[in-house]
Amino acid sequence: MSISVPRERCYYYECSSGKFRLTLFLPPATLKNLIKDKKVKEQVLIDFPDGADLDCTEPDFNDFQKEYGYRHPFNADDLQNTFYAIFSSTQGWNSYRGTGLIHADELEAKIPDIQDAVKMSPLETEEKIDSPANFEDRYRNRLKVVAAKIRNEKDLRELIVQGIDRRRPIHKQKFKSIKMSSGKKPNEVFSLLQNKKQ
């Protein structure tokens, strides 16, 4: 039984009670084009013949770049901030539990607006300075970073994101459709597998 998978770049989200995890999916066709343009090593298709999944975190992006030579053109923090602004603009976001896909073009197109609306200094987003020698200074710096992240999340929640209907939950938003391969929908397959276990 074949499972329908995205044929276009997209982001997969898993949400639970206001928290989320965001993953970039690069389908095989995208990887082949990147190989053709000499932007990624050919080994990537051997290791990921069905497409590559990358957690939208700087460590994951860095590891992928070291291994395959490809650096995603968007910063992980910008992707996370943009998705959070979209997600927190939807109905019932802080109690929503579910998963879904958002077209890469749609999420990435909103990044400049989110960046303009919410400005964060590099020190506030991550500690890029040398760690102080004593515990008190390290603790004070960490508190500054945490306070800045809390302010950032508040600013992102207050944004009005163009194209998002505040009366609908995220899975009912009218996002750009994603071309899928033929096969059964993943949730149908997982449901069948779950029923077989019982």
Q: What is the rounded Rg?
A: 19 Å
Number of helices: 9
Strand content: 5-15%
What is the rounded distance between the termini? 20 Å
Stretches with pLDDT under 50, minimum 5 residues: 121-129
Mean pLDDT score: 85
Count the E strands.
4
Strand order of the largest sheet: 3-2-1-4
In N-to-C order, the SSE pattern is EEHHEHHEHHHHH
Task: Give a verbal description of the structure.
The chain is 45% helix and 13% strand. It has 9 helices and 4 strands; from the N terminus they run E-E-H-H-E-H-H-E-H-H-H-H-H. The chain has a 4-stranded antiparallel β-sheet. A hairpin with a 2-residue loop joins strand 1 (10-16) and strand 2 (19-26). The two termini are 20 Å apart.
Give descriptors for this structure.
198 residues, alpha+beta
Structure summarized in a few sentences:
Helices cover 45% and strands 13% of the residues. It is of the alpha+beta class. The protein starts with 9 loop residues before the first strand and ends with a helix.
Q: What are the SSEs and their pairings?
A:
Elements: E1 10-16, E2 19-26, H1 28-36, H2 43-47, E3 52-55, H3 58-68, H4 76-87, E4 97-103, H5 104-109, H6 111-117, H7 122-125, H8 135-158, H9 186-197
Antiparallel strand pairs: 1-2, 1-4, 2-3
Helix pairs in contact: 4-8
